[in-house]
Amino acid sequence: MFLKSDKIYLRALEPTDLDFLYELENDVSVWHVGNTVAPYSRFVLEQYLENAALDIYTVRQLRLLICTPDHQPVGAIDLFDFEPLHCRAGIGIMLAPAFRRQGYASESLSLLLDYCRQTLLLHQVYCSVTASNHTSRQLFEQAGFQEVGLRKEWLRTAAGWDDVVEYQKLF
Q1: Is residue 64 within 8 Å of 77, Cβ to Cβ?
Q2: Which of 93, 38, 27 is nearest to 62 (CA)?
Q3: CA dihedral over 124, 128, 131, 137, signed as positive or negative
Q4: If pLDDT is split at 50, 70 and 90, which confidence band does 145 have?
Q5: How far is CA 19 from CA 38, 81, 117, 167, in A?
Q6: Dihedral sign from CA coordinates of 91, 96, 102, 104
Q7: What is d(CA 126, CA 146) in angstroms, rounded to the nearest whole number?
Q8: For the purposes of burial, counting CB atoms within 10 Å of the CB of 49, is it exposed (0-12), middle (13-18) or buried (19 or more)?
Q9: Whole-model pTM?
Q10: What is the pLDDT of residue 23?
Q11: Taking a C-beta distance cutoff of 8 angstroms, is the pair 107, 5 a contact?
């Protein structure tokens, strides 16, 4: 396994990850970030897991599970909108609530950035973060992402409108 550090490792999804993925995807506290408005069924997630092993060049996305050395899944990190012609991809990270603010996101982001640069030979990665999510903004800024834009009143939440900050990292 090459995507690992002392604190975590990243691995491909397995059929046995269904229960963890079900909990992660159905966390209503983060639905507004991913434009989710309804729960995912186990059946839909089973179908997703069946296709998750397909090549990133085929499906244009890659989801990796973030695990502790004792094999406890703590979250997922994604590459999406993978564009091999233009050598870029979007990045997203989601941690289970019990594992937030413990360094798992920064460690997994560091590993994924190395993978993007050294294996996929990407020129750049990007992400979109709600303006009110100061923890995620700090995470990406500390990883060298530069703020490149602001989408005003981009996401509607129960509390009102939230802006989205666009970030980009060039290798």
Answers
A1: yes
A2: 93
A3: negative
A4: very high
A5: 17, 26, 32, 32
A6: negative
A7: 9
A8: middle
A9: 0.90
A10: 86
A11: yes
For residue 59, name the pLDDT band (cuts at 50, 70, 90).
confident
Position 32 scores a pLDDT of: 62
Contact between 89 and 120 under an 8 Å Cβ cutoff? The reply is yes
CATH topology of domain 9-123: Aminopeptidase (3.40.630)
- Residue-level pLDDT at 27: 75
Which residue, 87, 105, 107, 83, is CA-closest to 96?
105
Cα–Cα distance for residue pair 131/153, rounded to 1 Å? 10
Average pLDDT in the chain: 90
Type of residue numbered 61: Q
Q: What is the dihedral of CA 105, 83, 149, 112, to 10 degrees?
A: 20
Measured distance CA(39)–CA(83) in Å, rounded = 29
> Predicted confidence band at 93 (pLDDT cuts at 50, 70, 90)?
very high
The CA–CA distances, whole Å, from 148 to 89, 156, 164, 167, 170 equal: 15, 22, 11, 6, 12
